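Support case: pyrrole-2-carboxylate complex. Customer-provided input:
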Amino acid sequence: MTSTSTDSVRIPLAELQDLACRVLLRQGLSRPHAEAMARTVVAGQRDDCQSHGVYRLVTCAQTIRAGKVDLQAEPVVAATGGAVVQVDARYGFSPLAFERGLPALVEAARTQGVGALVIRHCFHFSALWPEVEAVTGHGLAALALTPSHAWVAPAGGRQPVFGTNPIAFGWPRPGPHPFVFDFATSAIARGDLELHRRAGTPLPDGCGVDAQGRPSTDPVAVAQGAMLAFGGHKGSALSAMVELMAGALIGDWMSQESLAFDEGAGAAPCHGELVLAFDPARLSGGDPAAHQQRAEQLFAAITGQGARLPSQRRYAARQRSLAEGAAVPRALYEEILALAG
Ligand code: NDP
Ligand code: PYC
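Agent response - structure generated as follows:
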């Protein structure tokens, strides 16, 4: 451990993985779940994603206390040999279900051109970029969608209907870093709202309304009222699409149903996830390398004018963390040490 300032410490990644694993094993998770979840949250911390890094160890502990998650659940993968791969997470956490389904998804995309990984009945607490990055690692493009709990009002309304419903996209590139974006369709992710609440700091303007429908920057008041979609009616429509595609379409719960199942326990949402994979070799009509080159020209036209690509900040943080360890807020680190006993 290295002290960076009075407020944070740098922890070598292997040490952080070991600590996260110990915390999760101590909560009663099976080793495969603990290791998969630790990989996910340590990747988040490594890439300076504070709302979905090791802070999630605290929220996962809360989810486990609520008593509905199956800590030993073995995901069941059903690959049909066609485009669709189904994984029943059996009310366990989602990272292991994704890891178990990934090989069959890659195989489906390679043989069919398009593969669809349908995960059902999972407790979902993570960012989606680790998953689309994993798919791009196989030379495939990827799109991932998941609902959450109904915290977000539709544009023009004030009653929560939608989840924070992230959309993540990945495009494989030469070199180590794919083009990836991953964002909540709410103006702010719930995880960031929680971090504001813990720190006692106000939300940015435009993130939510209080229980009376008045605009508010108080995270507690917004949690009692409603969060708002980003971009008004456009984000609202995208959020509805996520409910439909990663809820109704795949036969699993939407965000209202997930919240009802929670019964006020404050656990992670429980629902499904849809991950699509696309093989450029099968879809480009020939000469995928030439089309890949055209994609590179698009990226050059973005960065060439001083704009940055999404995930560029994350990749820079990753490079530093690999060299110096991941920065963890000191108070959070102590909270995690306490969870590890
Ligand atoms: P952000 O708004 O922080 O970032 C969204 C995306 O935009 C990132 O890919 C980011 O890249 C990129 N970006 C940010 N600023 C710029 C810029 N100036 N130019 C170009 N690209 C930029 O994400 P959110 O707060 O909305 O979401 C955070 C995380 O929360 C996501 O990973 C998401 O998966 C997760 N989440 C999970 C949910 C769940 O149900 N499981 C629900 C909702 C959210 P970079 O990271 O490099 O800044
Ligand atoms: O940050 O909105 C969020 C979130 C929901 C579930 C996991 N993260």
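The chain has a mean pLDDT of 97.

Case will auto-close in a few days if no follow-up is received.
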